[in-house]
Design goal:
Strand content: 5-15%
Structural class: alpha/beta
Order of helices and strands: HHEEHEHEHEHEEH
Shape: globular
Largest sheet: 7 strands, mixed
Number of strands: 7
Distance between the termini: 35 Å
């Protein structure tokens, strides 16, 4: 009975999330586009998504679907122009990270543009990653220079806890090109939750405990003496050590 009730609350909360995405995409973002000065629009888009997703996370905590422990919470405050890399064990990892970290964007697949509720959000503030690497580095460097943090899951997809997975070289390439530091975040849960292949409505039988461990930054300047390919490999190896 408890599991059924939690599933009901979970589905209800995700319905609220979807409704909120629709309001943001079809009402708030168009308002910002037509009314706000162009040079302030991206910051406004980012702030709206951050606040909305922060509300959603607080809602999940309030109804005891999840709880979040962040031992080094101070390290997430006032981040600017950083590349945030994390492992990706659950469906809501991106919502948690952007809900916690202001001035953030992320890499998004081109397929998300087909979703009518998220198309306008993705076009307005996210970086499409299904593009040429040089264009990805150029677009990312522009966002980072403007003070945005870019959230990236270097595994490219959800993975199970403690699973060994391949690290894509994108974060390292972006860091070396832009000079931006990489902040690694290891995400763990005390029980499996919204993993790949797990039913979307399965909220488990108890509050799911998330733990976010924020690691020390990786500075690309430390690898300046290496050839680019070796530097990418070394940074990617360091990322993998910190998030697995």
């Amino acid at each position: 009975m408890i599991r059924l009730w939690r599933s009901f609350l979970g589905v209800l909360s995700f319905s609220v999330f979807g409704l909120g995405a629709g309001v943001i995409s079809f009402v708030i973002f168009p308002y910002i586009y037509f009314v706000w000065p162009e040079n302030e629009q991206k910051k406004a888009y980012s702030e709206v998504v951050h606040r909305a997703w922060n509300f959603f996370i607080r809602l999940l905590i309030k109804i005891k679907i999840i709880d979040i422990e962040i031992p080094d919470k101070e390290k997430l405050k006032n981040l600017s122009g950083k590349i945030i890399v994390a492992n990706h064990p659950t469906f809501i990892d991106i919502v948690i990270l952007i809900g916690l970290i202001p001035n953030s964007t992320c890499l998004a697949k081109k397929a998300t543009l087909k979703n009518p509720f998220f198309r306008n959000i993705v076009k307005s503030i996210y970086i499409i990653n299904d593009i040429d690497l040089e264009k990805l580095k150029e677009d990312s460097a522009k966002y980072l220079s403007e003070g945005f943090n870019i959230v990236i899951f270097p595994s490219g997809t959800r993975t199970k806890q403690d699973e060994d997975f391949k690290i894509h070289k994108g974060p390292a390439a972006i860091s070396l090109n832009s000079g931006a530091e990489i902040v690694s975040v290891k995400i763990t849960t005390d029980i499996p939750f919204l993993q790949k292949g797990q039913l979307f409505c399965d909220m488990g039988a108890k509050t799911v405990g998330f733990k976010l461990e924020v690691k020390e930054p990786i500075n690309p300047k430390d690898y300046a003496d290496l050839p680019e390919i070796k530097a990418r490999n070394a940074i990617s190896k360091k990322i993998k050590e910190r998030i697995i």
